[in-house]
Design goal:
The chain is mainly α. The chain has helices at residues 3-35, 37-52, 54-74, 78-113, 122-139, 142-151, 155-180, 184-209, 221-255, 258-272, 275-295, 298-325, 327-335, 338-360, 362-370, 375-399, 401-423, 432-457, 464-484, 487-507. It contains 20 helices and no strands. Helix 1 (3-35) runs antiparallel to helix 2 (37-52) and helix 11 packs antiparallel against helix 12 (298-325). The longest helix is centred in the first third of the chain and has 36 residues, at 78-113.
C-alpha cells in the first residue's frame, strides 16, 4: 500500500472519529437536561457493560483485520478469507444473543443489588438494564464487519458509515427525548434500533467488498485453527486490559450513589474524547505494520514506528495538556452548569492524564500484534491487575472518584515505564530512548508548559464567545509550540517555507 493510501486512511479515520466526537460531546448536555444526572449515570453503566464484553469482540475483530491485511499483501487466500469471515460472523451473532439474554436475566439483580439509585425507581432501572442488554447484542457484530473493512483498506467507506450512524443516533435520541418521551427507556430503545441497522449495513458492505470465489463461504474449523492462537492471545490481552481500564468504573458504579457515578461518567466523556484522535491513528497504522512485517521489511517497520509515534504525540499531547489545564472553564462552557463543573473538572483532569499515557502506548501495542507477540501484553496486564486492583479498592475507599482516576494514571505510567522497555529487548532493539525522549518526552514538556502559561494569561470568565475564543487560541498556540519542539515537524516546516520562498522568488 503506498504511503499516500496510509495518509488518506489516517485522514479518513480522523474525520470519522472527529465527527463522532462532535456528535457525542454535543448531545451530552441535552441528555443531562432531559434525563438528569442520575439517569445519565445509567448510560455510563451501559458503557461499562459494553466495555467489559469488548474482549470477546476484540480478539476476533483484530484477527480479521490482520488476516485480511496479510491477504492484501499475499494475494492468494481469497477462499480462506471468505470462510474465515463466515466463521467469525456466525460466532459473533451467536455470542451476541447469549450476552443479551444473560444480561436480561441478570437485570433484576443488577437493579436491586448493584446500582444505588435515589430518584429512579427499581422498575425503571431494571427496564433500563434489560434494554441496554438489547443494545449491546444488536450492535455487537458491528466491530467484526468494521474490522474486515479496515483490513481491506476501505477506511474512508467505514468512516462515512460510522459518521452517518453517529449522527442519526445522536440527533434521533435528542428528538425522541424532546418530542416523544424524556425517559431512559426511550433512549435505549432508539440505540437498539440504530445498533441493529448499523450491524446489518456493514455486514452487507463487507461481503460486497470481499473478492469473489468459486465456492460459497462456509463455517470452517480449519479457518479457526489457523488463527486461534493469535486471537486467543489478543483476547487475553483485551480481557486483562479491559479489567484494568474499567475496574474503576465497575467499583464506582456499585460503591457510589448513581448520581455521583453520573458525574464521574461526565468526566470520563471529557477524557475519552482523546480516543477519537488515538483510534484513527492506531486503526490506520496496524494494517500497515502487519503488511510490512509479512514482507520482513524491518527498516520500514522501524521508520513507520517512529513516524507514527511522533504523529500520535503531536495529535494527542497538545490536546491532553489543554484539557488538563483548562478542564474547569472547558466543562463550564460545555455544560453551562456550575454544579456539574465543580463535581467533574478535577476528575476529568486526572482521567485525561491517564488516557494520554494509554494513547501513547497504542503504537507499541499494535507493533507487538503485527509480530504476533501477544504474551508480553498478557503478562504485563496480569501483573498490573494483581497489583492495582487492591490499590484501586483502597484509593476508591479513601478518595472516591478522585482515587479511581489516580489508579488510571498509575496503571498506564507503569505500563509505559516497564512494558515498552521489555518490548524493545526483542523488537526494534535500541530504539526505546528515541521513543521516550524524542518521540514523546520533549514535546510533552513543551505542551504542558505552554498550556500553563496560556492559562495564566487568557481570561477564564466572560461571554460564551470570549471564552470560546480564548480557549481556542490557547489550544492553537499549544499545538504550534508542541509541533515546533519536534525535529520532524521542524524539518517539514523548513521544506514548506523553502518551497514558498522559491515560489515567491520565481514570481518576482
Amino acid at each position: 500500500m503506498p504511503i499516500s493510501k496510509l495518509k488518506l486512511n489516517v485522514l479518513a479515520n480522523f474525520a470519522g472519529k472527529g465527527w463522532a466526537a462532535i456528535m457525542g460531546l454535543a448531545f451530552v448536555p441535552f441528555y443531562i437536561k432531559f434525563l438528569g444526572v442520575e439517569a445519565y449515570g445509567l448510560i455510563g453503566f451501559y458503557v461499562i457493560i459494553q466495555a467489559v464484553f469488548v474482549f470477546l469482540q476484540f480478539g476476533l475483530g483484530t484477527t480479521l483485520t490482520r488476516e485480511i491485511a496479510r491477504f492484501s499483501a499475499l494475494k492468494d487466500e481469497v477462499e480462506n478469507i471468505r470462510n474465515l469471515v463466515r466463521t467469525l460472523e456466525i460466532i459473533y451473532w451467536v455470542t451476541a444473543a447469549i450476552v443479551g439474554i444473560t444480561l436480561v436475566v441478570l437485570a433484576p439483580l443488577i437493579a436491586v443489588h448493584w446500582i444505588d439509585a435515589k430518584d429512579l425507581s427499581p422498575d425503571t432501572v431494571r427496564r433500563a438494564v434489560m434494554l441496554l442488554a438489547v443494545v449491546i447484542a444488536a450492535q455487537w457484530p458491528f466491530s467484526l464487519y468494521a474490522g474486515g473493512l479496515f483490513g481491506l483498506q476501505h477506511q474512508v467507506l467505514i468512516n462515512v458509515i460510522q459518521s452517518g450512524l453517529s449522527t442519526v443516533r445522536g440527533v434521533g435520541a435528542v428528538l425522541i427525548l424532546w418530542l416523544v418521551s424524556p425517559t431512559i427507556e426511550a433512549f435505549f430503545i432508539w440505540q437498539a434500533v440504530i445498533g441493529l441497522l448499523g450491524s446489518l449495513l456493514v455486514a452487507v458492505v463487507l461481503w460486497a467488498k470481499i473478492p469473489k470465489a468459486e465456492q460459497p463461504p462456509k463455517f470452517s474449523i480449519e479457518s479457526l485453527r489457523r488463527v486461534w492462537k493469535f486471537a486467543a492471545g489478543v483476547m487475553t490481552i483485551s480481557l486483562l486490559g479491559i479489567a484494568l481500564a474499567q475496574m474503576d468504573k465497575v467499583l464506582l458504579s456499585g460503591l457510589l450513589p448513581l448520581k455521583t457515578f453520573g458525574y464521574y461518567t461526565i468526566a470520563g466523556v471529557v477524557a475519552s474524547s482523546l480516543f477519537y484522535v488515538i483510534g484513527p491513528i492506531r486503526t490506520a497504522v496496524f494494517p500497515k505494520f502487519s503488511e510490512l512485517v509479512a514482507h520482513g521489511d524491518e527498516d520500514a517497520v522501524r521508520k513507520l514506528y517512529h513516524q507514527s509515534s511522533q504523529f500520535m504525540t503531536i495529535a494527542i499531547v497538545p490536546i491532553a495538556a489543554w484539557l488538563v489545564v483548562f478542564s474547569k472553564p472547558l466543562i463550564l462552557l460545555w455544560t453551562q452548569d456550575m454544579v456539574v463543573t465543580e463535581n467533574t473538572y478535577m476528575i476529568a483532569s486526572l482521567l485525561v492524564i491517564g488516557t494520554l499515557l494509554n494513547g501513547l502506548l497504542n503504537l507499541p501495542f499494535v507493533l507487538q500484534l503485527a509480530y504476533s507477540w501477544t504474551k508480553i501484553g498478557s503478562y504485563a496486564n496480569l501483573v498490573a491487575l494483581i497489583v492495582l486492583v487492591p490499590m484501586l479498592y483502597i484509593l476508591v475507599g479513601y478518595y472516591g472518584a478522585i482515587g479511581a482516576a489516580m489508579t488510571w494514571i498509575i496503571l498506564n505510567a507503569g505500563q509505559m515505564l516497564i512494558s515498552v522497555q521489555v518490548m524493545h529487548t526483542r523488537l526494534l532493539k535500541g530504539e526505546q530512548l528515541k521513543w521516550y525522549f524524542s518521540d514523546i518526552g520533549l514535546p510533552a514538556v513543551a505542551a504542558f508548559s505552554i498550556s500553563f502559561v496560556c492559562y495564566l494569561i487568557v481570561p477564564k470568565e466572560g461571554s460564551f464567545l470570549l471564552m470560546a475564543a480564548s480557549l481556542g487560541a490557547s489550544l492553537g498556540i499549544t499545538i504550534v509550540i508542541t509541533g515546533l519542539s519536534m525535529s520532524s515537524t521542524r524539518d517539514i516546516s523548513k521544506v514548506v517555507f523553502s518551497k514558498l520562498k522559491s515560489l515567491r522568488n520565481n514570481q518576482i
